[in-house]
Each structure stands twice: as C-alpha cells, then as structure tokens.
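Re: the request from the purification team.
They wanted to know what the chain is likely to look like in 3D before they choose a buffer screen. I agreed to run a prediction and write the result into the notebook, where they can find it.
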Amino acid sequence: MTRLLIDTNILIYLLHDALDEDTDALVRDYENQIYVSSVSIMEFTHLIQNNRISSRRSSIQNVVRYVEENLGFRIAYTTREHLMQLEKLPLIEGHNDPNDRLIIAQAIADQLELVSSDTKFAAYRKYGLQYIKAAHPKM
C-alpha cells in the first residue's frame, strides 16, 4: 500500500472532477491510502469564503465529511512533529507559501508521498520530500 498526501490543488481538482486521468487513477486506487492535510481543508474553505472557487461543500464540516465519508480519505491533522519539520525546511527562492511549506513538512515527517501539480515542490526533494508530479487539470 502506498500512502499519499494530496496537495490542496489536487483536492480542488478532485472535487471539481478535473483531475487528469493518471492522477485520478492514483487517488482512486483502493491499494493507496490517501491523506488530506488539515491545512488543505483550511485553504479550501478560505478560497470558498473569498469567492476564489465555488463549491457545494461550503463549510469545513461539509468538506471534512465528504473527504472522509464519500472519498474514504483520512485527514492528516497538524502535529508538533510537523511544526518541528517545518522549522528545519529552508526557504526556497520563489516559494514562500507558508501553507505549502507546512503540507510539505507533513509529508516529510509522516513519510507520505506528496501529490501536487505545483512544480516548485520538486525543490524539496533534497530535504526528504517524496514528490509525485501531477499534470495540470483539465479545467
């Protein structure tokens, strides 16, 4: 079984049926255990509240319920270990998003493969990130 952490962008594409074929097959493969960071849930909700994306799942409660019950994914809540890992990560030029960095720290600390279409994540491989590059959506 492969343990995967999906980035916020993958969650958004998934909830809008916009994943590319390969990534969709990866996250829907029952042999894989899929995790969604609590940071991604927060980001998703923030984007809805600021009208940057639309979704029928407009509350954190609805998003969490859908992720856990409908998709069968697990929520990876931020822990002390994740914060300690975050402190160890250097700032990468051109990438200073604190939410991304915490998701990356979670993936490293929990030894999860991180699935994202954000190509800047590749720079963290030398710090222990297992990164799977997803294609940009068909949106």
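For the purification team: Helices lie at 8-15, 21-28, 38-49, 60-70, 80-88, 98-110.
Please add any questions underneath this entry.
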